[in-house]
Design goal:
Layout (H helix, E strand, L loop, with lengths): L2 H7 L36 H13 L2 E7 L5 E4 L4 H7 L8 H15 L1 E9 L10 E12 L3 E8 L4 E8 L4 E4 L3 H4 L5 H19 L6 E4 L7 H20 L12 E4 L8 H16 L3 H5 L4 H27 L2 H5 L2 E6 L8 H13 L5 H8 L36 H12 L5 H24 L1
Antiparallel strand pairs: 1-2, 1-10, 3-4, 3-7, 4-5, 5-6, 8-9
Helix pairs in contact: 2-4, 3-4, 6-8
Length: about 450
């Protein structure tokens, strides 16, 4: 940019600031549209499970595509606002991936969630529409044909309640509802046990001594009770005022401490429920610490991620695409990349097999690895480079009798002009050759 244009048109955030001329609206010190988990979940390991699965689901691409008659992917459909909302910008505050992350976290917490189109090209309550912006809504009330949802309003900065038709809102239920959201499910039992364990830890860490002082006299009268209370306050004052927490007692007094650890099976129950939850969700510890092998990750994708992604895409296809669009082959599909689980040492071998089998072109493989494509037209073709014919190989012989050089045509003409040999002529020639052979043998013996 020329210097003059930079001076005239340039802008700096900290220079030339003017006082605001209008009210910005409602403001908070925290993000109001962020998903907030239920109380009792945010302080347990369940939050780590929710977040891990939600991140893995959000890392998969959701796209508006066209399919063929066999429901196989044909091409992307980039002409709709829905495609823009799922891939780039879901709303003013969230990208497509952040929207899916928020959607899955809310679904895990409540058991079901609504994807609400807050902005569309037409009124969603009257006709078919193309959603331009999507928000996550908490379902508050169920009606026969409507639902009451609580959605964040970006214009006011508050969450507001709306009653919308079920046909216009994508209602997604957690496929793992019986494991995660039922009142007596494995996950809910684990949450209660963890909450109980946290309560016990808080009680044992508040700094209380829990002592019983046995005085050398019987406390039955009011005077004896006042004397015992005075003795208790005296010991408390000694412990609080001492640098090392030391107090003295009379030789006839006995002190019993009650805050000894009690043996219970609470920790064993938590470990058992955690192991059972991992098996029911189809995950393992290796998935969380990043040490899972290819088979473990493949099992995790098929048993955990795929049902969740299928529930989201099928509901969006049913609610956000009309019957006409579905009859034309339009779908909402999730696209998983199988090469994410492949080590770098095996990429070269896989690339060679895919190109030799004419499954992927060279430029498609370069895009998967992360390299930019080349301009060679052959790099976009499905071809096996090991079977290409050499440029120096002789051309195949022609079967056309008119083809060839003049000498070849002349030799062919001479051959055609010769008369064919009959069987009688061939017999005479053989008899002449036999007479010559007999004369030759007589000459050898005579010599």
């Amino acid at each position: 940019m020329p210097i003059l244009d930079r001076i005239v048109k340039g802008w700096n955030a900290f220079m030339g600031r003017e006082p605001p001329r209008y009210d910005y609206g409602y403001s908070t010190s925290y993000r109001p549209d962020k998903a907030v988990l239920s109380r009792g979940v945010d302080r347990t390991i369940v939050t780590a499970i929710y977040n891990r699965i939600a991140l893995d689901v959000a890392s998969v691409d959701l796209q508006h595509v066209k399919v063929d008659q066999n429901e196989n992917f044909k091409e992307k459909y980039d002409k709709s606002y829905l495609s823009e909302a799922l891939t780039t910008e879901a709303n003013l505050d969230q990208t497509g991936r952040e929207f899916i992350l928020d959607l899955v976290l809310s679904m895990f917490d409540d058991g079901y969630v609504a994807a609400v189109p807050t902005d569309a090209n037409v009124d969603i309550r009257k006709s078919a529409y193309d959603p331009m912006e999507l928000r996550v809504g908490k379902i508050l009330q169920w009606y026969p044909k409507h639902v009451k949802v609580r959605v964040y309003n970006e214009n006011t900065g508050h969450r507001e309640d709306l009653t919308l038709p079920k046909r216009s809102v994508a209602i997604i239920q957690n496929p793992l509802y019986n494991v995660m959201n039922q009142p007596n499910s494995t996950l809910q039992r684990l949450i209660r046990k963890l909450t109980l364990l946290d309560a016990i830890d808080e009680q044992t860490s508040v700094g209380k001594l829990d002592l019983i002082i046995q005085l050398p006299y019987v406390i039955k009268t009011e005077a004896r009770r006042e004397q015992a209370e005075k003795r208790r306050r005296d010991i408390e004052t000694q412990l609080a005022g001492s640098k090392y927490g030391i107090a003295y007692t009379d030789g006839t007094e006995r002190i019993t401490q009650l805050n000894r650890s009690l043996d219970n099976n609470l920790m064993g129950q938590i470990e058992y429920l955690t192991t059972m939850l991992y098996s029911q969700l189809g995950i393992s510890k290796e998935v969380f610490d990043g040490t899972a092998d290819e088979k473990t990750m493949l099992n995790y994708q098929n048993r955990t991620l795929t049902p969740i992604l299928t529930a989201i895409t099928e509901e969006m296809t049913r609610k956000f695409l009309t019957k006409t669009a579905r009859s034309q082959g339009q779908r909402i599909k999730f696209m998983q990349t199988p090469f994410k689980l492949v080590p770098v040492s095996q990429i070269a071998d896989i690339a060679d097999k895919f190109t030799r089998s004419e499954i992927l072109s060279s430029n498609e493989l370069r895009a998967i690895v992360g390299f930019k494509p080349v301009d060679d037209p052959k790099a976009d073709e499905l071809r096996n480079s090991n079977l290409n014919e050499s440029a120096d190989a002789p051309p195949p012989a022609s079967t056309n009798p008119e083809a060839g050089t003049s000498e070849e045509r002349q030799m062919q003409q001479v051959t055609d002009d010769e008369e064919p040999v009959t069987s009688e002529e061939s017999t005479d020639d053989s008899e002449d050759y036999s007479d010559l052979g007999q004369d030759f043998v007589r000459m050898l013996f005579s010599s």
